[in-house]
Design a protein that fits this description.
23% of the residues lie in helices and 36% in strands. The protein is an alpha+beta fold. The longest helix has 18 residues, at 166-183.
């Protein structure tokens, strides 16, 4: 196991800057997830750590050793790719053993490491099968086993679940989490799926345009987003946003737009009168307000998505589209007029121009 340190890491392809001066320290044994929309640079950053792309500027260290000029095989890393990249003519055993055999490891060592990895992954009964005889989830476990036998300092996962169906993604995600709990190997995992990030990570690194938008624990990212971008990316369904004007009223901030008025405690924010802000509220924090009044939103139901114990309401409030998640016991029909209560201790305020959080 090892620490990973990125200091001013940048990557350019010609005149295009893809990774822009990233600083990040990853602790020994930590499970870090790089997440973000397509084109944000997460896979490129992983490839820089792996040595599959040349670093344009900055320093990369693994286990205290500068790795900028080291080949991938010298970095003490093992990578699991999106595609399984298995040899179709080789058995599961031979696929897992191949890297050790190329390195001319003793036969007894190869046997012990492959058997141990197969036991960890519960694949001992599959060792003599070919990849064509395996399910997608089993093939991905073979790829993970091939990484385990190398006993790396750092595991690198590049969207390993994207080729699996929903049920297999869920079960394999649990297997990866259990594997990390057992091995405690430093792990960097890339995904575009924020659910994977939330459930797997010790710490999430959310990338945006080649820069780190925010890094923190899943709870920090969800409850204290540093920007509108983070708030809109982390959480399903995504956060609702309303453009409003803030004015000071004693120890309160009054947020208004049209006939809507919402008051929040001023103590949490440092704002002046007539400030343009964006109010954010998560769909799960909205509920029905049968008596109306302040701190409510009047909406029209567009669509109801029944999910079993709850329902997702797609609503319109003026020109704004909103989402609310409510108990499925008494769901309004499309076209109904409803009033939603906005809990003022659950709102988020963002600068309407920069998108940065206004919370102190």
């Amino acid at each position: 196991m090892a620490t990973v340190s990125l200091k001013g890491i940048s990557k350019s392809f010609g005149s295009v800057d893809v990774i822009k001066s990233i600083d990040l320290d990853i602790a020994d044994g930590e499970f870090i997830v790089f997440v973000g929309p397509s084109g944000c640079g997460k896979s490129t950053l992983l490839r820089l750590v792996a040595g599959l792309e040349e670093i344009s500027a900055g320093d990369l260290s693994i286990g205290g050793v500068r790795c900028n000029d080291l080949a991938p095989k010298q970095r003490g890393i093992a990578m699991v790719f999106q595609s399984y990249a298995l040899y179709p003519h080789k058995s599961v055993y031979d696929n897992m053993a191949f890297g050790l055999q190329i390195a001319r490891a003793p036969k007894a060592e190869v046997e012990a490491k492959v058997r141990d990895a197969a036991r960890i992954l519960q694949m001992e009964h599959l060792l003599q099968r070919r990849p064509s005889q395996l399910s997608g989830g089993q093939r991905q476990r073979v790829a993970i086993g091939r990484a385990i036998v190398r006993d790396p300092q750092v595991f690198l996962f590049d969207e390993p679940l994207s080729n699996l169906d929903a049920a297999l993604r869920a079960s394999t995600r649990v297997e990866i989490a259990r594997l990390h709990q057992r091995l405690k190997t430093t792990t960097i995992y890339v995904t575009h799926d924020q659910l994977e990030a939330m459930t797997l990570a010790d710490r999430i690194v959310l990338l945006n345009g080649g820069r780190i938008e925010q890094a923190g624990t899943p709870q920090e990212m969800y409850e204290r987003p540093g920007s509108k971008f983070v708030a809109g990316f982390i959480g399903t369904p995504k956060m609702n946003f309303l453009d409003m004007t803030a004015s000071v009223s004693g120890d309160k901030l009054r947020l208004t737009r049209g006939d809507t008025s919402i008051e929040v405690p001023k103590a949490g924010y440092d704002l002046n009168d007539a400030t343009k802000v964006t109010l954010g509220i998560r769909p799960t924090d909205l509920g029905f307000a049968p008596h109306g009044g302040n701190n409510t939103l009047k909406c029209t139901v567009d669509l109801v998505e029944y999910l079993g114990n709850e329902a997702q309401l797609n609503l319109r409030s003026g020109e704004d589209a909103l989402t609310a998640v409510v108990a499925a016991r008494a769901v309004p029909v499309p076209g109904a007029e409803v009033t939603l209560a906005v809990p003022t201790d659950r709102v988020h305020l963002f600068d309407a121009t920069t998108g940065r959080s206004l919370a102190r």
